[in-house]
Specification:
This protein is an alpha+beta fold. It has seven helices and eight strands, in the order H-H-H-H-E-H-E-E-H-E-E-E-H-E-E. The chain has two domains: 131 residues, Four Helix Bundle (Hemerythrin (Met), subunit A), CATH 1.20.120; 120 residues, Heat Shock Protein 90 (2-Layer Sandwich).
Length: 268
């Protein structure tokens, strides 16, 4: 646990881990169903047999997410990002429960299966995007900070093999210097910034040094090397969660959608 952020009671870390575990397990069952619906090797009877359990797991998705995020919120400056994320997860969880309830007791023929697959795949993907933001906030309040060279931070950022969970950026030659950062949070915040810049400009984002204490992601600077950064889908709570995570790690964040430019102020 990061120094300076003591737990409110001795059981808090274990309770938070338990809530996060229930949340991830419940989302895992939804993801497995989405994959099963897509697979031609899994017959309709197998799909029909798991629908009740997956439907029942929907209640755990919302309740465990709330329990985990309520605990995370205790260590944030305010709970705005948490409330936005919960407000986004809740309707999708309830929609998924309604979709699965409607499918119970009915034969999963070809037409029904296709419709069910489309709904479950969409909602599973949206909920997984929400899970990534839950993990980001958790990493921000419980992760550790290390002294790292900026260029190494970008070159060795952990990225998923899923192309939708990473974004290519160009790195300017002036990106050097050691900073004390939480590498997982910093890399993902930068990846979110790059995704925002790319979405608004349609161009490859460039990471450069703005001032001695600031990183800038835009499209004006020249980049000399291409690297991949982790990212998440950009939806309503994404920027708010990135800002809250950055603040919890001693980083500042400014987003200018007109430029477009994403700036991250580094800790002294």
């Amino acid at each position: 646990m990061e120094s300076g952020r003591p737990s409110r009671n001795a059981d808090e870390p274990q309770e938070l881990e338990a809530a996060l575990g229930h949340f991830r397990d419940s989302l895992g069952s939804v993801k497995n169903l989405a994959q099963g619906l897509h697979s031609v090797r899994i017959g309709p009877r197998s799909i029909e047999s798991v629908l009740p359990d997956v439907r029942d797991s929907c209640a755990a998705i919302e309740s465990s997410a709330r329990e985990a995020l309520d605990r995370v919120a205790l260590r944030l400056a305010d709970r705005t990002a948490v409330d936005e994320l919960l407000g986004w997860l809740g309707p999708r969880t309830r929609e998924l429960e309604q979709v699965l309830t409607a499918a119970l007791g009915k034969p999963v023929n070809a037409k029904a299966r296709l419709g069910l697959e489309q709904d479950v795949a969409r909602l599973s993907g949206e909920l997984e995007a929400g899970r990534a933001l839950v993990d980001l906030l958790d990493d921000a309040v419980r992760g550790s900070r290390f002294p790292l060279d900026l260029s190494e931070l970008l070159r060795h950022a952990r990225v998923s093999r899923d192309a939708s969970a990473q974004i290519e950026v160009r790195v300017a030659a002036d990106l050097t210097g050691e900073v004390l950062v939480n590498p997982r949070v910093c890399a993902l915040v930068l990846g979110i910034g790059a995704s925002l810049v790319h979405r608004h400009s349609g161009k490859t984002p460039v990471v450069s040094r703005g001032t001695s204490a600031c990183l800038v992601i835009g499209v004006e600077a020249a980049g000399t090397e291409t690297v991949a950064l982790p990212t998440v889908a950009v939806f309503a709570p994404t920027l708010s969660c990135a800002r809250a995570a950055a603040q919890a790690c001693g980083l500042g964040l400014v987003w200018d959608d007109a430029a477009p430019r994403f700036s991250v102020t580094l800790p002294p």
